């Protein structure tokens, strides 16, 4: 017999060791130590690890659920058994109490006393019959009357083969004790009936003297029969632990605790339990369950687990034991708990799986995004490099262009100057002539002034000197103009009246026009027109045009040049026309091409440079249609 730890219950010896408890841990522990078991980098290993972990968890959960359910079911069984044991005690006690009152009643019965005092046959027979009826009615095993010597004089079973009548029960403890102290209770195995029972005995007295003993034997067949109808094996044992009443007949007169050999021999000698060997009940405490039972007989109970509860049977020294089978409740609770655990586990595994899969997906998305971002950044960096290279190239080109432009501008300036000097060569003679005239006049007026002074005509001399001053001024203006024209002038824009520019040009080419008898018509409209130009450069344009026109008119009579200007919407349109032969065809076809000239001494640059000068001011320069040559300029109005 093995006693399991924490046991208040019994279990078959072979079933000791609750096999499934705590097995989950050893399974999972090595898995935790597996290399790469927890790694999330190697994906297949990770899934395998999760799978093993889930399996281990499942096993652990199942074990825990079983253990928990078992404990819960056992406690439930115990609660039910404690209620049941109370009922069983009540049943047994009511049977005992019922039988216990009988000897008291019969001890006072006049019929019983009369039979002892006057034991004639008719009286005895009448008592026998009464006892028989009484036993039948109270379900007593037997009721019988002993005389003071212990001889049976009347018995309820007087008609049966095992009739007690005539038997000597003076050796029975209940007789001796009743005779001594008045009453006794004694459980014993019937020597004649071979049926066990509880004997209640009471002394009968006459005038204070004992005259006999009335005995009621309570048998518990009916109680045992009742108990057998329940699923829980039940038995009642006396103070020594010997089973007296049991739902399993084979357990009767077995011991719940080991009885020492000498005590056992003594009991056997007393024939209290016949020749019953008083062996131990076939019950083993369970090793790890609160209560289990191993029964050898009947075999149907062998190996089953039970919760044992006990309760004292009041008014006796007995203890009633009830063995409540655990299997149905445990099986039910275990199945329910395991199902629930399985459901929870599936839900848990599902959730974890979902969570892991979701995390994976997010990680993958993040990785893809990071990759895409890196690619994009690389492309942007590459493109930025290309762009900055292109930018550098462009900057270089812009710088180059700027330098070229500067060089071009310088060249342009040089060209303008060259063209101007070329014109200057042509106009120098006429300007010299223009100057010569006042210089000759000055000489004459000076001579005259001296003579007037000699004559004392001071006022006339003074008038002559004033004329000389005017003439000198005129010469100064002409030479000044010539000097300004010859100077290399910067193309700086300023606001200047158009008339001033045209007058300047007229001054330079005036002699040439007069030489050819050419009339210059200038019509600048009613109001003064100012333009935003570089004045000397615009003057160069007009000098060119007037010079060309004069040359084209040549010796023709009635030569006429007309300059007409009109201001309109911020622009000034100037037309320079002549009544010469007009532009030759070849010049018209290659107009504004450098070096196109019909003159033997010409450079073919005048028109080209005039157009460039006007373009510099933001104006236009072109040739129009007319009987002679027509040139049209537009200039920004100031
Ligand atoms: P150049 O005077 O040195 O020849 P230009 O560029 O000033 O150079 O003139 C180019 C040519 O255009 C002249 O050679 C001439 O044939 C023609 N031309 C210019 N102005 C006139 C004009 N008013 N009438 C006729 N032909 C003209």
From TrEMBL:
InterPro entries linked to this entry: dCache_1, HATPase_C_sf, HATPase_dom, His_kinase_dom, HisK_dim/P_dom, HisK_dim/P_sf, Sensor-like_sf, Sig_transdc_His_kin-like_C
Keyword terms: ATP-binding, Cell inner membrane, Cell membrane, Coiled coil, Kinase, Membrane, Nucleotide-binding, Phosphoprotein, Transferase, Transmembrane, Transmembrane helix, Two-component regulatory system
Domain Histidine kinase: 430-638
Database matches in Pfam families: dCache_1, HATPase_c, HisKA
Membrane topology: Multi-pass membrane protein
Enzyme Commission code: 2.7.13.3
GO cellular component: plasma membrane
Record flagged with keyword Metal-binding: no
Enzyme class, first EC level, given as a word: transferase
Recorded catalytic activity of this chain's protein: ATP + protein L-histidine = ADP + protein N-phospho-L-histidine
Domain of life: Bacteria
Stretches of the chain forming a coiled coil according to its record: 359-414
PROSITE patterns registered for this protein in UniProt: HIS_KIN
Subcellular location, record wording: Cell inner membrane
Task of the protein: Member of the two-component regulatory system DctB/DctD involved in the transport of C4-dicarboxylates. DctB functions as a membrane-associated protein kinase that phosphorylates DctD in response to environmental signals.
The protein, known as: C4-dicarboxylate transport sensor protein DctB
């Amino acid at each position: 017999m093995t006693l399991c730890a924490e046991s208040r219950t019994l279990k078959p010896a072979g079933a000791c060791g609750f096999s499934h408890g705590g097995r989950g841990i050893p399974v999972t522990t090595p898995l935790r130590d597996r290399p790469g078991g927890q790694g999330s980098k190697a994906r297949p290993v990770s899934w395998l690890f999760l799978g093993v972990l889930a399996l281990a968890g499942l096993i652990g959960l199942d074990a825990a659920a079983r253990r928990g359910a078992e404990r819960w079911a056992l406690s439930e069984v115990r609660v039910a058994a404690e209620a049941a044991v109370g009922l069983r005690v009540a049943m047994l006690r009511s049977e005992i109490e019922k039988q216990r009152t009988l000897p008291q009643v019969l001890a006072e019965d006049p019929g019983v006393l009369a039979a002892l005092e006057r034991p004639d046959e008719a009286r005895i027979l009448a008592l026998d019959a009464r006892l028989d009826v009484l036993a039948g009615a109270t379900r007593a095993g037997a009721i019988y009357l002993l005389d003071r010597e212990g001889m049976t004089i009347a018995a309820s079973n007087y008609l049966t083969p095992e009739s007690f009548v005539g038997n000597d029960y003076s050796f029975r403890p209940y007789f001796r004790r009743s005779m001594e102290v008045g009453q006794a209770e004694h459980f014993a195995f019937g020597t004649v009936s071979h049926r066990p029972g509880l004997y209640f005995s009471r002394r009968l007295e006459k005038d204070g003297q004992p005259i006999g003993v009335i005995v009621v034997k309570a048998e518990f067949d009916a109680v045992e029969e009742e108990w057998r109808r329940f699923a829980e094996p039940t038995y009642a044992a006396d103070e020594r632990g010997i089973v007296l009443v049991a739902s399993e007949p084979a357990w009767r007169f077995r011991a719940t605790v080991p009885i020492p050999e000498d005590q056992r021999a003594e009991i056997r000698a007393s024939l209290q339990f016949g020749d019953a060997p008083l062996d131990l009940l076939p019950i083993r405490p369970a090793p790890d369950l609160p209560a289990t039972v191993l029964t050898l007989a009947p075999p149907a109970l062998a190996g089953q687990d039970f919760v044992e509860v006990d309760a004292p049977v009041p008014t006796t020294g007995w203890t009633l034991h009830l063995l409540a089978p655990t299997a149905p409740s445990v099986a039910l609770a275990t199945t329910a708990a395991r199902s629930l655990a399985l459901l929870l586990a599936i839900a848990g595994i599902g959730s974890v799986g979902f969570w892991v899969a979701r995390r994976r997906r997010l990680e993958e998305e993040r990785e893809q995004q990071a990759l895409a971002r890196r690619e994009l950044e690389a492309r942007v960096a590459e493109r930025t490099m290309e762009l900055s290279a292109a930018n550098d190239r462009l900057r270089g080109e812009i710088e180059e262009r700027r330098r070229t432009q500067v060089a071009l501008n310088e060249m342009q300036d040089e060209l303008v100057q060259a063209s101007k000097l070329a014109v200057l060569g042509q106009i120098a003679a006429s300007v010299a002539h223009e100057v010569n005239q006042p210089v000759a006049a000055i000489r004459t007026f000076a001579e005259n002034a001296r003579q007037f002074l000699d004559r004392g005509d001071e006022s006339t001399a003074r008038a002559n000197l004033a004329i000389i001053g005017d003439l000198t001024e005129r010469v100064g203006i002409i030479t000044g103009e010539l000097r300004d024209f010859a100077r290399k002038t910067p193309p700086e824009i300023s606001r200047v009246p158009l008339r001033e520019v045209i007058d300047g040009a007229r001054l330079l080419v005036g002699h040439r026009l007069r030489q050819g008898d050419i009339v210059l018509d200038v019509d600048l409209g009613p109001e003064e027109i100012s333009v935003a130009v570089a004045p000397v450069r615009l003057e160069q344009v007009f000098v060119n045009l007037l010079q060309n026109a004069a040359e084209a008119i040549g010796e023709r009579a009635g030569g006429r040049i007309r300059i007409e200007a009109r201001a309109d919407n911020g622009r000034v349109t100037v037309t320079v026309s002549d009544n010469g032969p007009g532009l030759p065809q070849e010049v018209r076809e290659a107009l504004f091409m450098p070096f196109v000239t019909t003159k033997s001494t010409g450079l073919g640059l005048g028109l080209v440079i005039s157009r460039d000068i006007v373009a510099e001011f933001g104006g236009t320069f072109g040739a129009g249609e007319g009987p002679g040559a027509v040139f049209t300029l537009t200039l920004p109005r100031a």
